[in-house]
Amino acid sequence: MIGFIGAGSIGGAVITGLVKNGFNSDDIIVKGGRSNRTEILSDQLGFQVVKKVKQLAETDIIFIAVGADALNSVLKELKEIAAGKLIVAFTGSASVTHLKQVLGDVKVAHAIPNTPVKVGAGFTGITYSDDFTAEDKKKIGSVLGYTGQLVEVPENELGILGTVAGCSPAFLDVFIEALSDAGVKHGLSRKLAYDAAIGMAIGASKLAKQSDLNVSALKDEVTSPGGSTIRGVAALEEYGFRNAVIKAVDAAENE
Ligand SMILES: NC(=O)C1=CN([C@@H]2O[C@H](COP(=O)(O)OP(=O)(O)OC[C@H]3O[C@@H](n4cnc5c(N)ncnc54)[C@H](O)[C@@H]3O)[C@@H](O)[C@H]2O)C=CC1
Ligand SMILES: O=C(O)[C@@H]1CCC=N1
């Protein structure tokens, strides 16, 4: 049995990814926030909703998916039932050190999923406290594995990994939207422009994943000598696209 505290954007995405990809919703209990968002999701997915953190007492793993503002009050309630459980927090500020400080002698992990977990295509970075055994990690993997890739990193790399994989779906969405705008500017219908931009992003990502070539060489394959693509690449460089992406990551990293 697993529990969730918070089912907003990322909690809801992970729960949806689990259930849509075969995890039994009878084995999920969720303590939601003040709105009726959790009940609405429960009507769709069939998991149990509870009102108090202590009603998660029967679970083995608890995922915390509240924002930084609610973290400490949630941890205070959780402390009463946390003994013997594996606690995994998605909250940005929930470092392993902080979780241990508040919860005491409990196995804790800090994970940063991304929204594609919702369709089982997520990329989640995770840092475990030192007392996690291989068996404990396997247990977490056997759950989060339903939502996509799970990669363990040391805590000093989790933040930047969370930016490169966790914030970037929004960056890619902006790119796709801008590409569609350009298609519409040149006469495509909005629907066809979105279909083309999204279809391209899926296809190019699949090729990058499966190809022996790195993305730089894949770019070279598109840029025919004297052709249209290299003119577009030159314009991207002229307008600072690469630097804009690096600056976006810098901005996300700096509080
Ligand atoms: N949205 C994303 O793609 C990702 C978000 N995160 C982190 O996860 C945390 C949550 O982010 P979002 O899901 O985007 O925010 P959100 O605001 O959509 O979700 C937070 C949810 O927690 C609920 N909540 C608040 N207090 C609660 C309580 N005491 N008990 C139960 N539920 C409670 C709220 O009602 C809300 O539904 C943040 O720290 C964020 O940095 C991490 C990875 C990805
Ligand atoms: O915007 C945020 O704070 C979170 C962290 C990763 C994705 N969204």
TrEMBL record:
One of its GO terms (molecular function) is pyrroline-5-carboxylate reductase activity. Pfam families: F420_oxidored, P5CR_dimer. Residues 155-254 form the Pyrroline-5-carboxylate reductase dimerisation domain. The lineage of its organism: Bacteria, Bacillati, Bacillota, Bacilli, Lactobacillales. This is Pyrroline-5-carboxylate reductase. It catalyses: L-proline + NAD(+) = (S)-1-pyrroline-5-carboxylate + NADH + 2 H(+); L-proline + NADP(+) = (S)-1-pyrroline-5-carboxylate + NADPH + 2 H(+). It is found in: Cytoplasm. Transmembrane segments: none annotated. The keyword Phosphoprotein does not apply. It is an enzyme of class 1 (oxidoreductase). Its EC number is 1.5.1.2. It comes from Companilactobacillus heilongjiangensis. The keyword Oxidoreductase applies. Its main location: cytoplasm. Residues 2-89 form the Pyrroline-5-carboxylate reductase catalytic N-terminal domain. GO terms for cellular component: cytoplasm. Belongs to the pyrroline-5-carboxylate reductase family. Pathway: Amino-acid biosynthesis; L-proline biosynthesis; L-proline from L-glutamate 5-semialdehyde: step 1/1.
